[in-house]
């Protein structure tokens, strides 16, 4: 079996889900801050089932151990970044910022965006030409749209809820340039 192309490879083609002869919408799983094994021993089974159902798994950093990246790669195509708690092994394999076109949507992923106050304006300035920005770090689910029209999504954490009532992740569908069916899933 040949190795998968690097998630940051400039020659990697845009993600388009193809089942059969015609293009169909791309199913996304958005997760962050898994903190395995610091906060949980493993990725929850529900998240792994969601990974199996997704066409693209997006992870916004704080994996903690590279074995989590390896495990998710066994379940599907992964686009991820390193977070502030990730060591040299993950930083060697992942970028700080990842970008990819997914079924007509210009997607960017970063771990940290700073404080909530002023986030929309800062991200518009930092990520021009981006349709959707997935981020993590706070463990707080977030779904807003900036004045420039960029969708900001933080899936929370499926393993470390901190001050949140539940562990969470997001699913969404990229469909011909439109992000739809964004759902916050509570564990």
TrEMBL record:
NCBIfam families per the UniProt record, alphabetical: yfcE
Species of the source: Microbacterium lushaniae
Top-rank taxon: Bacteria
Cofactor(s) of this protein: a divalent metal cation
UniProt GO molecular function: hydrolase activity; metal ion binding
Gene3D superfamilies per record: 3.60.21.10
Organism classification: Bacteria, Bacillati, Actinomycetota, Actinomycetes, Micrococcales
Chain positions covered by the region annotation Disordered: 1-23
The protein's name: Phosphoesterase
InterPro entries: Calcineurin-like_PHP_lpxH, Metallo-depent_PP-like, Phosphodiesterase_MJ0936/Vps29
């Amino acid at each position: 079996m040949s190795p998968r192309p690097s998630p940051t490879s400039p020659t990697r083609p845009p993600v388009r889900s193809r089942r059969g002869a015609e293009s169909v919408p791309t199913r996304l799983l958005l997760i962050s801050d898994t903190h395995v094994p610091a906060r949980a021993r493993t990725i929850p089974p529900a998240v792994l089932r969601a990974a199996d159902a997704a066409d693209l798994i997006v992870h916004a950093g704080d994996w903690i151990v590279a074995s989590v990246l390896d495990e998710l790669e066994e379940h599907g195509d992964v686009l991820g970044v390193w977070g502030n708690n990730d060591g040299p092994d993950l930083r060697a394999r992942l970028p700080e910022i990842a970008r990819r076109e997914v079924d007509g949507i210009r997607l960017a992923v970063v771990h940290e965006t700073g404080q909530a106050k002023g986030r929309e304006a800062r991200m518009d300035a930092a990520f021009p030409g981006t349709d959707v920005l997935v981020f993590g770090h706070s463990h707080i689910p977030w779904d807003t749209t900036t004045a420039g029209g960029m969708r900001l999504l933080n899936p929370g954490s499926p393993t470390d809820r901190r001050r949140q009532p539940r562990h969470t992740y997001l699913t969404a569908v990229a469909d011909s340039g439109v992000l739809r069916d964004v759902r916050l899933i509570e564990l």
